[in-house]
Amino acid sequence: MTEQLALYGGKPVRDSLLPYGKQWISEDDIKAVSEILRGDFLTTGPAIEQFEREVADSAGTSYAVAFANGTAALHGAVFAAGIGEDDEVITTPMTFAASANCVLYQKGRPVFADIDPITGNIDPTTIEDLITPKTRAIIPVDYTGRPVALDRIRLLAEKYGLIIIEDAAHAFGASYNGIPVGSSADMTMFSFHPVKHITTGEGGIIVTNSDEYYEKLLMFRSHGITKNPSKCRGSEGPWYHEMQCLGYNYRMTDIQAGLGISQLKKSAAFLSRRRQLVNLYLEGFASLEGLVLPPKDFEGESSWHLFVIRLELERLKAGRREIFEALQAENIGVNVHYIPVYHHPYYRSQDFRPDCPQTERFYERIVTLPLYPAMRDEDVQDVIMAVNKVCNYFSKC
Ligand SMILES: *Cc1c(COP(=O)(O)O)cnc(C)c1O
């Protein structure tokens, strides 16, 4: 017997909506932020440097430069890489718009490669054909937290002299072949938006081993100004500072950094909880037909920012839209990550029409299920029950 779907007037699996992602703030975080508020510095104080040092240590890099948000951090990385007018940067369309927007900010042109249909990550075999004399960099994204095959991208980067800026907004704490994400690309960005692994409210960071990029990132986030006498061309007195490039005010506050330091203490626990929840999902869905689950085993360890399932539309009587709406009606906070970047009207208006058949096929089939460390086991069971209910209802067999 099939149960009536909530979409058609049946009783929903849950009484209240389960969001797809959410921060986890506890008393120790509140205490840490209060201490900053009672202290001397709300911005440009010591909490920033401490947060940067701790993130750099966790990623295994020499430097980290904190920004007001992850998008500003990507903008900084594109600036530091020297990307400018007419330069081309290859990236993936299966990402948040910011991964490509950061190139447009500096008047460069994003070029969209296609994706691997299993992982949703950029497909390295589609990159090489897109490289032209104007190509300067590659921005791969660790989609859902699964690290991209950076070793393969590195070979291309070396062959053509390209810079790699890894958008690891999803991949804080992930590793590839045992190497932590952050230590392999020229620059790597992490985001601290509330749905990401740890949060600072808004916030982002670039980690790098390069002295040159480090100096440029510092200037760029603070108006392009340096106060360091050894970097200044002139010297007119103790007040002297120089604006040497067109930067922005992209600084993180100490309030944010204080929250970040406190959240970092829990990042390993958050990560292992995400992995536990994923195991519950994989067990719960093992025998369900009509779904393709995210593959678990590969050369790395995902940080599981998102749990994205793919619908086997050939086995279902409904499309993604109807299934999505049915899950929503069951009070499951589903989502779609992502609308391909070049679908957005702004990109269309600029004549972005890449040939990405795998991206198109993938996009039609994906649904993101809730996943965040504060989720309870019972919440996962609710999602499994709702997905079972909906898929069985729409199953062709
Ligand atoms: C969240 C995110 C960003 C932007 O980070 P913000 O901190 O929200 O500015 C960039 N790229 C990807 C893939 C993201 O998920």
Textual characterization of the structure:
- By secondary structure, the protein is of the alpha/beta class.
- It has 2 domains: 6-21 and 267-394, Aspartate Aminotransferase, domain 1, CATH 3.90.1150.10; 27-264, Type I PLP-dependent aspartate aminotransferase-like (Major domain) (Aspartate Aminotransferase, domain 2, 3-Layer(aba) Sandwich), CATH 3.40.640.
- Helix content is 36%, strand content 14%.
- The chain contains 13 helices and 15 strands.
- The chain has helices spanning 27-38, 46-59, 70-80, 98-105, 124-127, 150-160, 211-220, 254-264, 267-285, 320-329, 345-349, 357-365, 377-394, and strands spanning 63-67, 88-91, 109-112, 135-139, 163-167, 175-176, 179-180, 187-191, 204-208, 225-226, 242-243, 291-292, 300-301, 307-311, 366-369.
- The chain has a 7-stranded mixed beta sheet with strand order 1-9-8-5-4-2-3, with helices on both faces. The protein has a 3-stranded antiparallel beta sheet with strand order 7-6-13, with no helix packed on it. A 3-stranded antiparallel beta sheet has the order 12-14-15.
- Helix 6 links the parallel strand 4 and strand 5 (163-167).
- Helix 1 (27-38) runs antiparallel to helix 8 (254-264), helix 2 packs parallel to helix 8 and helix 3 packs across helix 7.
- It is globular, with a radius of gyration of 22 Å.
- 48% of the residues are buried.
- Bound molecules: pyridoxal-5'-phosphate.
- The site of pyridoxal-5'-phosphate (PLP) has 14 residues, from helix 3 and helix 4.
